Amino acid sequence: MDWNCTFTEERLSDYLEGKLLPVEAAAFSAHTADCANCTETVALVGGLVNRMRKMPMVEEPPQLIAKILDATLGPRTQKESWFRWLGWISVLWQPRFVLGLGAAVASVVIVSYAAGLTPAKLKKADLSPANVFRSANRQAHLTYARGAKFVNDLRVVYEIQSKLQPEPEPMPVSNPAPSQQKEHNSIPPDSSQQQKSQTAPPASRAHVRTGPMFAFLLIESMADNIAENLINRSTRSTR
Amino acid sequence: MEADAQLVQQCLRGEGPAWEELVRRHTRRVFNLCYRFTGNATEAEDLSQEVFLRIYRTLASYQPVFGAFPTWLTSVTRNLLVDHYRRTRRDRQTDSIDDAMPQLEERHSSARAPDKLAEAGELSVQLQRALARLSPELREAVILRDLQGLEYNEIQTVLQVPEGTVKSRINRGRIELARILTEMGLKPNNLS
Questions:
Q1: Is residue B42 part of a domain?
Q2: B34 and B81 in contact (C-beta within 8 Å)?
Q3: Where residue B186 falls among pLDDT bands split at 50, 70, 90?
Q4: Angle value at C-alpha B62, between B56 and B68, nearest 5 degrees
Q5: Is B84 within 8 Å of B38 (Cβ atoms)?
Q6: Could you tell me the pLDDT band of residue A192, with boundaries at 50, 70 and 90?
Q7: Does the pLDDT at position B31 exceed 70?
Q8: Higher pLDDT residue, A191 or B75?
Q9: DSSP letter string over A16-42?
Q10: Which of A78-82, A183-187, A229-233, B167-171 has the lowest mean pLDDT?
Q11: Contact A161, A153 (CB under 8 A)
Q12: Does B55 reside within a domain?
């Protein structure tokens, strides 16, 4: 069957859609294989058709459906429009929002208790800005004082610890000069072991002693804080 | 198809939700046809509204035996597009559509580009420009076949021309479109 470039163009869509007779398809392929122009045309058009068919549809503007319904059915009823406006409420029922809300409430409660607020004893006067400021100011100072006390207690612990520890013997120089190194090397190995055995026991003794001391001071500081809190509350309740 | 016919029957009985469902099912298809033909999202939106208004008024005249509902909807859309094309031809002659098209496309793609369009990216934009340079007869044939996925007999019903003419227009439209894209410096078979 004779085939030429004009036939290729005229029957290109039939070829792409598999609608050529077997004889025609064979002639088409035979001609295209020998003709560079036709090969290119088939590749270009075939590729274009494939791409167009895979192309997703453009999304319509979001308000279009509502506009069409308004234009045909008339404006929707009040109830529907209210539903549209209040549609965001459904978000509140999502578990992550409920969990988040619970965590936020718990945080507020913890912070308010830490700040010395007890909802049961809350009066109207406590909510006035001046009182809120005064209370916050007092709590801030108290917190600072407690912190300072804790640091001081720690300092005492370390002072006691340092006094309990015997004076450490001068440590050998880590990077001695070559001449010193020779001397250091000349010391027999058992003498360095002796050094270690002398320094080690006091350090472990100090550790044993400071542990209970530290715990004692910590408990004492906590007891002080609790007592202070109780006094504050009792004075506030008498006021 | 049957679902559409059922919805139409429910609409004719005055059931609002059925009409709403019908609109939701077909708005995208109608909007795309209008957008691809006019190349302008705002015009496409107005025309889509006009299409559904006309459908709503003439729904009683739809007979399933004459074809599926989407084919009828496409016919109504196409007729409105042709009317619109004729109405605006004079405007386009003074203000060339080729000059306006890139701006309109850019405006559309930046203002309301959906994710899917963004994915298709450059091809969608370039294709729209190339389509605008096709004659309306070839353009509508290619859009209906390759972008709307209609069968030849459905296109024949929509365009009201013999099957041979449909085939010829689609074929010439595709070749012409590939030529235009090549002229624009793009390889239609290797677009990304």
A1: yes
A2: yes
A3: confident
A4: 110
A5: yes
A6: very low
A7: yes
A8: B75
A9: HTT-S-HHHHHHHHHHHHH-HHHHHHH
A10: A183-187
A11: no
A12: yes
* Cβ-based contacts under 8 A for chains A and B: 118
Residues of A in contact with B37 (CB under 8 A): none
Query: Whole-angstrom Cα distance, residue B187 to residue B191?
Result: 6
Strands (E), chain A: none
- In eight-state DSSP terms, residue A87 is G
pLDDT greater at residue B49 or residue A134: B49
Q: Residue B125: name the closest of B36, B185, B6 by CA.
A: B36
To the nearest whole Å, the CA of B88 is away from the closest chain A CA by: 23
Query: What is residue A57's DSSP assignment?
Result: P
Cβ atoms < 10 Å from Cβ of B164: 9
As given in the structure block, the two tokens for residue A150 are 């804790």
Q: Does residue B186 sit within a domain?
A: no
In eight-state DSSP terms, residue B146 is I
Segments making up each domain of chain A, as ranges: 5-54, 124-168+194-239
Test the B interface: residue of A44, A54, A67, A76 with most B CBs within 10 Å: A44
Two structure tokens written together for A218: 């910590």
Contact at CB, B174 and A55, closer than 8 angstroms: no
Of B32, B171, B178, the CB nearest to A58: B32
- Domain tally for chain B? 1
**Cα angle value B156/B142/B169 (rounded, 5°):** 60
Position B27 in a domain: yes
Q: Judge contact between B75 and B158, C-beta under 8 A.
A: yes
Domain of residue B17 covers 1-95
- Top residue of A10, A63, A68, A84 to mutate, by most chain B CBs within 10 Å, is A68
Note the residue count of chain A. 239
What's the CA dihedral at A187, A191, A195, A201 to 10 degrees? 160
Q: What's B47's domain CATH number?
A: 1.10.1740.10
Who among A46, A55, A68 is closest to B120 (CB)?
A55
- Nearest-by-CA chain B residue for A46: B189
At residue B116, φ and ψ (nearest 5 deg) are -65, -40
pLDDT at B188: 67
